[in-house]
């Protein structure tokens, strides 16, 4: 009886260790950003002045928004535009928005290939048409059912995040550029997601109008 108990405990420890290894491997898995960009008469970068503002008035003046807006500002500077503090003095107005949905639970067993871990698992921009949601935990990962013998069952949550960038001419309000970037990952941390999505948005900026491209984003460091 004691021998059976010992082996049962050892078996469960091995199962837990296996799930932890899978979780760590998943942490190091990069996710793909899907970027769609459209432009019309966007001037080639030649020092034109711009200012970044919140597309959602509820975010205007927020410290967190200011941090992410700074990333957009830096990206615009790198491609050749000139930032100004006062939007009324800017030639271009850049409207910026971001968000992440509440996530959805997924379950898989070892040996089953989940499409989430395949090339690109698509999602709709409408998944997070509301303010950012901070979930209780980035991982809801791993459980073991002895009724399934050696089969391991993994439970986790995936989130769809995205950003929106719109550039207009201040003088007449004409829309010159629209871009949306979206990613599906096991992280709901905006501090990690938004910088990578901004990086994806401005990779080969402004891109080909009407084209949707997939850009790999670095995994989250632990």
Topology:
Layout: H1 2-27, E1 31-39, E2 49-54, H2 63-78, E3 82-83, E4 92-100, E5 104-109, E6 153-169, E7 175-185, H3 190-201, E8 211-217
Parallel strand pairs: 2-3, 2-4
Antiparallel strand pairs: 1-7, 1-8, 4-6, 5-6, 6-7
Helix pairs in contact: 2-3
Q: Can you put this structure into words, describing what you see?
A:
This protein is α+β, with helices and mostly antiparallel strands and 222 residues long. It has helices at residues 2-27, 63-78, 190-201, and strands at residues 31-39, 49-54, 82-83, 92-100, 104-109, 153-169, 175-185, 211-217. The chain has one domain (2-217). 24% of the residues lie in helices and 30% in strands. A hairpin with a 5-residue loop joins strand 6 and strand 7. The longest helix has 26 residues, at 2-27.
Biggest sheet overview: 8 strands, mixed
What is the general shape? elongated
| Continuous helix count | 3
Structural class: alpha+beta
Estimated helix fraction: 10-25%
Distance between the termini: 42 Å
Task: Give the overall average pLDDT.
Answer: 76
Number of strands: 8
Poorly predicted tracts of residues: 6-12, 14-27, 116-148
Count of spatially separate domains: 1
Question: Could you tell me the strand content as a percent range?
Answer: 25-35%
Radius of gyration: 22 Å
Order of helices and strands: HEEHEEEEEHE
Give a quick summary of the entry:
The protein has one domain (2-217).
Name the descriptors.
single chain, 222 residues, alpha+beta, 8-stranded mixed β-sheet, 30% strand, elongated
């Amino acid at each position: 009886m004691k021998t059976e108990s010992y082996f049962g405990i050892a078996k469960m420890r091995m199962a837990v260790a296996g799930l932890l290894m899978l979780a760590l491997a998943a942490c190091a898995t990069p996710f793909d950003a899907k970027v769609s960009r459209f432009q019309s008469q966007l001037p080639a970068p030649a020092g034109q002045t711009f200012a970044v503002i919140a597309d959602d008035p509820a975010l205007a003046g927020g410290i967190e928004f200011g941090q992410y807006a700074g990333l957009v500002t830096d990206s615009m500077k790198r491609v050749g535009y000139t930032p100004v503090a006062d939007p009324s003095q800017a030639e271009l107005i850049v409207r910026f928005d971001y968000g992440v949905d509440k996530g959805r639970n997924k379950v898989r067993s070892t040996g089953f290939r989940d499409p989430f871990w395949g090339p690109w698992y698509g999602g709709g921009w409408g998944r997070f048409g509301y303010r950012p949601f901070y979930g209780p935990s980035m991982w809801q990962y791993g459980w073991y059912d002895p009724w399934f013998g050696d089969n391991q069952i993994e439970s986790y949550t995936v989130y769809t995040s995205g950003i929106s960038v719109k550039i207009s001419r201040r003088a007449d309000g004409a829309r010159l550029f629209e871009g949306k970037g979206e990613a599906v990952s096991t992280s709901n941390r905006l501090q990690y997601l938004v910088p990578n999505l901004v990086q994806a948005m401005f990779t080969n900026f402004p891109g080909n109008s009407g084209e949707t491209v997939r850009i790999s984003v670095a995994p989250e460091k632990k």
